[in-house]
């Protein structure tokens, strides 16, 4: 890794560099962010698109590097974002379309890409109030599912996503794409199953686990008494017994037809909007 990507130590900052070579070491480092290990080492990740970059900066995310296509030069919003990047001690790169395509691995890349510092919350940072809803995902494997769930959690008004056990990386390019920018809005926590179970006891939440063999129809639960954690199982194997047994409720979404189960992201969306509907009803009654 070059200095630009080290967590500590000197960084090349401030100036706009023109880059046309794919073998430029900074471009190589950015391309390496497709690997989880390189993302972890540098503590950074890539987000594509001007709107996402603007949103992220507005929400206070730290930008390390802004990359934009030559064709975007002079556009007012791009210039503003470039100025902000420099002001925050970041590096601005103006690159050829060929370089941008290779960085994003796309034929028609977005004109702007931002490299941001990753942000994780700790379980104990989560102190949900009564009107809050969180989603906990047990060993979620599919980046598209995780991205869609983060996006849906954001849209439903949930205040956090907890990744329990070995999960896919929320900062991979594919997940970030699927979040459509919500990765910047929804706090993400990662923990082991043991850490989750111990937090659950002291969190003051109602954990509602979803299970194909759930004893209760999800529509009959009152989600408004305590903050709710919706616990969702792994795509292949569902929830393990230890997590399901420790939950306050175990619910199922009744299905018709021949499908064994719903897709994880779809089931999460059904649960999120049902849980939030109870709170909206509560608001209406005020
Ligand atoms: N073969 C897995 C099993 O036996 O649980 C299917 C897992 S399903 C694709 C992924 C997760 O979505 C489940 O663990 C559960 O959390 C949720 N889910 C999907 N359909 C559901 C349903 N009808 N009722 C409750 N939860 C459901």
Automatic annotation (TrEMBL):
Keywords: Methyltransferase, Transferase. GO terms for biological process: methylation; RNA processing. One of its GO terms (cellular component) is cytoplasm. Residues 46-122 form the RNA 2-O ribose methyltransferase substrate binding domain. It comes from the Bacteria. GO terms for molecular function: RNA binding; RNA methyltransferase activity. Pfam families: MRM3-like_sub_bind (PF22435), SpoU_methylase (PF00588). Belongs to the class IV-like SAM-binding methyltransferase superfamily. RNA methyltransferase TrmH family. This is RNA methyltransferase. It comes from Neorhizobium galegae (Rhizobium galegae).
